[in-house]
Amino acid sequence: MDVEVLSSIATREAYLELVPQFERETGSKVLTTWSGTTDIMKRMAAGETYDLVIVSSVELEKLIEQGRIQAGSRTDIATCGIGVAVAKGAPKPDIGSADRLKQALLAAKTVGYTSGPSGVYMAQLVERMGIADAVKAKHRGVPSGGTIGSIVATGEAEIGFQQISELVHIGGIDVVGPLPAEIQCITRFCCGVHSGAKNPDGARALARFLAAPARLPVMKKHGLEPA
After folding, report:
1. CA separation, residue 57 to residues 36, 70, 79, 101, 120 (Å)
2. Average pLDDT over residues 42-69
3. pLDDT digits (tens, 9 = 90+) for 93-145
4. Which contacts qualify for 98-105: CB closer than 8 Å, 24 or more apart?
5. pTM recorded for the entire structure
6. Domains, the chain, ordered by start
7. Which of 57, 94, 202, 218 has its CA 20 to 30 A from that of 72?
8. 47 backbone dihedrals φ, ψ, rounded to 5°
């Protein structure tokens, strides 16, 4: 029986490498819809049904509270920090501390971040740094589910911020590194069984498969860390 999944794009590359193994082992076909976090919440609010939903822990807990995800079905699968990127071959800014990152943000002509969890955090961070107005004036975004790396590669954004797992596979950019440890934001990605799941057993089996320690090397290869 098919397993229908709605998933955050942040886990896509690792997921795409792992799912064929699950399909071979179980004989199930996994059908996946990819969306940004904002769109996932809209899809859930609109009443769309899937077997398994993969999204950040904050949003998953909201969906559990709303009754859209089965209570007790949460499975943590990976974590990821925010990375900093510039166009390939461009000078790499010094991001070794919070103050140096602040200077890099002020010096950049344009700054890219999304409307998803990493972008929400970046908006809060520049507010705390006292440079929100300066950054807002040169902010560049992408539609929900879009990649900041794509607009860094074209030069639309001189410096960009997004989950590391969403940057490492984008051509035309260099990943400078993660945010400094003292201001890093780690997002935990989880999956939960939809309350209207047609194949809840398949959903739980896929959740267990993705969370198994044996998957860790693939997760790390694609910019994700243990949950």
Report:
1. 14, 14, 10, 27, 15
2. 98
3. 999 999 999 999 999 999 999 988 899 999 999 999 999 999 999 999 998 77
4. 98/129, 98/180, 98/182, 98/183, 100/180, 101/179, 101/180, 101/183, 102/129, 102/131, 104/159, 105/129, 105/131, 105/134, 105/135, 105/159
5. 0.89
6. 3-79+188-221 (3.40.190.10), 82-183 (3.40.190.10)
7. 218
8. 95, 10
